[in-house]
Amino acid sequence: MATKLVDLVYWRSMRWTGVVFTGLVIGLASQFQLSAITVLSHVCLGVMCVTFPLRLYYKLLELLRWNPGVHPFQSYLDNDSTLTDKETVMLVEEAVLLIAFAVTEIKRLLFIDSMIDSIKFVVLLYLLTYIGVLTNGLTLVITAVIAVFSLPLLYKKQQVRAAGHDFSMTSQNCKNMLSFMFLSLYNSVRPSSAPAPAPKPAAAPAVKQKAKSK
């Protein structure tokens, strides 16, 4: 089951991942207008609108002896999805352990077993009140589904791209860019030097007035 989930998340089977992702998003988005029972009923009716005519078509071919009586969905019917007693016990034990762990943690946080953890819990609850005002739980679930099917694949592609990238050239370019930025910043904030004093004009020679007594 874990392997199948990983294959779905990483889009290793484009057809099945597309069907599951589209179905989840459309089904969750339909919850804004319709109830869960209505959505589930319409989904089942939509599936049967495809399977029932196809089964009738194969049955008609079988009556006309053009088909050796092959069921069109025999592979799905033969797929064994039952759980053994051991697998059932393991799943129940895991579910019980998760529930017990959640109850223990909530009790520890509510009754202040650790001051730091309880403060973090209070801050989280306070932030959730604002998130609850801005949006609802269904929107968060749809966002989480989109993130689960998008972020792992995007992260994997970025890892592949980073593996083939020359980091030495990148680091050198970053150093040059940072040096240029700091130099430009220094030149912009450096106080400009005081302008040199302008030379004083030469004093005009004093005109000597000769007083001539006549």
UniProtKB/TrEMBL annotation:
Residues 192-214 are annotated as: Disordered. The keyword ATP-binding does not apply. One of its GO terms (biological process) is endoplasmic reticulum tubular network formation. Pfam families: Reticulon (PF02453). It is a multi-pass membrane protein. The chain crosses the membrane at residues 16-34, 40-58. Keywords: Endoplasmic reticulum, Membrane, Transmembrane, Transmembrane helix. GO terms for cellular component: endoplasmic reticulum membrane; neuron projection; postsynaptic density. Residues 5-214 form the Reticulon domain. It is found in: Endoplasmic reticulum membrane. InterPro entries: Reticulon, RTN1-4. The keyword Cytoplasm does not apply. This is Reticulon. It comes from Scophthalmus maximus (Turbot). The lineage of its organism: Eukaryota, Metazoa, Chordata, Craniata, Vertebrata.
